[in-house]
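Batch job 17 of 40 flagged for manual review because the log was empty.
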Amino acid sequence: MARDEFEKIDEQVEPQEQSTQPGSEKQMNPEPIYDDKDYRGSGKLEGKVALITGGDSGIGRAVAVAYAKEGASIAIAYLDEHEDAKKTIAAIESYGAKAIKFATDVSDVENCNQLIVDIISEFGQLNVLVNNAGKQFPQDDFLAISPDQLMETFSTNIFSMFYLTQAALPHLQKGDSIINTSSVTAYRGAPGLIDYSSTKGAITSFTRSLSANIAEQGIRVNSVAPGPIWTPLIPSTFDAEKVKNQGNDTLMERRGQPSELAPAYVYLASKDSTYVTGQAIHINGGDYISS
C-alpha cells in the first residue's frame, strides 16, 4: 500500500473514545488497516503453527493475517472481544489457513497453561509464539498509580509472557521463534504511562535475557517495538483529542497502521532471520532509538 494511502486514512481519524479496554476494532472510525493487499505471501511459514495473543484486533490481527498468507496455521488468544475475534478468524481462513480462537485472560497462569495444552491438542505442535497482549492506563499523576492498576498492567503485559513462554517452551524445537511486542516507550519513556512503559522495558530485558538462556536450543527470541499505531488500545485509553493527534509528533507526521508492522513479525518467525536473536525491530515513524 502506498504511503499516500496511509496518510489519507490517517486524515480521516476523528476524535473518538471507547469506554473499556483493550477496546474493540469494530467501533473505530476508520477501522485500522490490518491486511495490506499488496503483501504477497511466499510460503515462509508453511507447516508452522503460531499462537498470537491479543490476536483479535490491532497488531495481533495484522500479524495473524500475514502469517496466514505465509501458510501458517494460527491460534489467536483474546480477552472478550468476540466479534473482533470472529472477523479475524474469517480473515485468516480467507487465505486458506486453519485458524482457532480462544477467549482467555492470559494474566492468569492456569489460563496460559491450559491455552498451550489446547493448542497442542488441536494442532499437535507449536512453532511461533507471539506475546502481544497488552493494556495501558494513562495516569499523569505518578502518586495516583494504585497497587491494583500496577498489578493489572504488569500481569497482562509481562507476567503473561513468562507464563506462556514457560508453558510453550517444552513444545518448541530448534528453528522455532518467540516474538514479544515491546514499545517505543521502553526506550524513550512516557510520563503519563509510567507503569506501562516499565512493563515494556521489562519486555526488552526479558527478550534479551531469554534469548541468551535458550540460544543453545536453537530457539530465537526477539521483539518488535512499535511507535504510535492505530489500534483499539488508543481510543480505549486516551481522550478524544489525543486520539485525533496520535502520531503527529513523528518524523512522518502520522500514525502507523497495524499492517505496517506485520512483515517484521513474519521476518522474525521465518528462516529469513536465522542469525537474529535478542534484538528489537523499531517501527515508529522515525524516532531515533540508540539501543
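Reviewer: the log was empty due to a logging misconfiguration, but the result itself is present. The chain has a mean pLDDT of 96. Unflagging and moving on to job 18.
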